[in-house]
Design goal:
This protein has 365 residues and is an alpha/beta fold. It is 35% helix and 22% strand. An 8-stranded mixed sheet has the order 10-11-7-12-6-13-14-17, sandwiched between helices. The longest helix has 24 residues. The structure holds adenosine-5'-diphosphate and magnesium ion.
Amino acid sequence: MGLFSKKNNGAPTRETVLAALSTVQDPDLHRDLVSLNMIKDVKVEGGVVSFTVELTTPACPLKAKIEADCREAVGRVEGVEKIDINMTASATARGAAPETEGIPGVKNIFAVSSGKGGVGKSTVAVNLALALAKTGAKVGLMDADPYGPNIPQMVGCSEPPQVANNRVIPPSVNGLKTISVGLIDTGDTPVVWRGPMVHSLIQQFLRDVDWGELDYLVVDMPPGTGDAQLSLSKLVPLAGAVMVTTPQQVSQSDVRRAIQMFRKVEVPVLGVVENMAYFICPDNGKRYNIFGEGGGERLAEEYEVPFLARVPIDQRIASGGDAGQPIVAAEPDCELSQSFMALAGAVAQQISIANAASQPLPVIQ
Ligand SMILES: Nc1ncnc2c1ncn2[C@@H]1O[C@H](COP(=O)(O)OP(=O)(O)O)[C@@H](O)[C@H]1O
Ligand SMILES: [Mg+2]
């Protein structure tokens, strides 16, 4: 009672509202919303209070909780009759990294990686990118795999990029800006790329492509822990790497080497996603753990990184990729798409946390 009581004949004021909101914590950042500068446009008219909450990512999985906590806190202020909350988001970026330069306008670049080919990196990268875009984030997808550039087929894009003023304009499908050597190299002969060429491919995709304003640039990495990973981490500051694994042992020992490699070059490992985690038989609804159980979680525990999500093996995911109709775009509300939405929320959450840790504390206005 006493804490928020006021002199104003029981009517709320900006100050009493802000005092109430400063008791609401961001559960991830462990600080209150007011000192995090997330509260904007507080207006008080009689008993009617309105304000904006600006989240650190459009994909925030805690949006509903934060809104409810704000409503509850302000609801306790004496004299408040009505609360209008406008939930918005502006993705944060990493603090200044003086030694390397990012891409102007692109807030967060992160890699989708694993040690091994065939574990579903590209499938995860495509559906994760689409899931982020579905939350309202501005998203780009860069295919850094010159050996098997299958992103164009997976996203259903065959349109070669336009060039204007020496800048490559990435085509956009389902709201996702995409670039791949598969869009540029139209000949039938496969390109044989050597290390330095991988480097120059990645460099060109980062520097010569007009990505515009992006909240997230998702980079689908080629298999292995070699040149591409090293090049990318040297060329731009990375928000982190998402590691894809199947529950199987062999895939895990591979992803181990990849995690160690990213740590060596000081790229934060955002967490582990377990792909092909289980199979639900469409005939009887029974669950089969084809590749074993819990491998991804154990790996995450061992390296003390978050376990981000579990994606089942499902024919709709495979055929969606083959047909250029990724599941998140084709059936956005199905349970498979929901697992990718959960992954998007978890990845965005980890990036926001890492960004907050990299930045000086905001000045309280
Ligand atoms: N969760 C899944 N369910 C069914 N098929 C999958 C799943 N993830 C990947 N696949 C299939 O496995 C194959 C390899 O996936 P891909 O994403 O190309 O792997 P990577 O990029 O790691 O080499 C593709 O044919 C893809 O459709
Ligand atoms: Mg791939």
